[in-house]
Design brief:
single chain; 162 residues; mainly alpha; two-stranded antiparallel ribbon; 4 helices; 2 strands
Length: 162
């Protein structure tokens, strides 16, 4: 049971490694504004997210099984405490190491994802400005009193006479 739990943590780590690598690729694609490549990366990212979701369900099930047979394990038990309750010293070390590696990579992945979100927001602002220029309107980078974006229409002297 404990070994299966450690294996699940290690598999979660491998999936997050893939997601982190994908986030790095995504950064380059976002900077280049390569929408075709971004679409492919997003599809791959969705696939990896589903794999992580399945592994998380598996991890929670395994934790529930461990809690049933291990006194002192509850919903509030963190990974450090859980590792201390492991049946052997070897299991303790492996659970602790896998948990720490997983925590580290999840943090790195979240940071890269946040950085990419900033790039996406910047790209959307640029696209909105370009569309505004094409359509004769400008979306101001501030919100109005109703909470919505402020749109100004540019005056154009268009001659529709043929």
């Amino acid at each position: 049971m404990w070994n299966a739990f450690t294996t699940t943590l290690e598999e979660l780590y491998r999936q997050y490694e893939k997601i982190r690598a994908l986030q790095e690729k995504k950064r380059g694609v976002l900077v280049a504004l390569d929408m075709a490549a971004l679409e492919k990366l997003t599809a791959e990212e969705d696939f990896l997210a589903k794999a992580v979701q399945q592994l998380e369900k598996q991890r929670l099930t395994q934790l529930a099984q461990i809690a049933q047979v291990t006194p002192g394990v509850s919903a509030e038990t963190n990974m450090e405490e859980l590792a201390l309750l492991a049946p052997t010293d070897a299991v303790h070390r492996s659970v602790l190491a896998a948990s720490r590696k997983l925590s580290s990579i999840v943090k790195e992945t979240a940071e890269r994802s946040e950085a990419n979100s900033l790039l996406i927001e910047g790209a959307l602002i640029a696209v909105n400005r370009q569309l505004g220029k094409i359509g004769g309107a400008v979306v101001d980078p501030v919100y109005g009193n109703t909470g919505g974006e402020q749109v100004r229409h540019l005056k154009k002297n268009l001659d529709y006479k043929a």
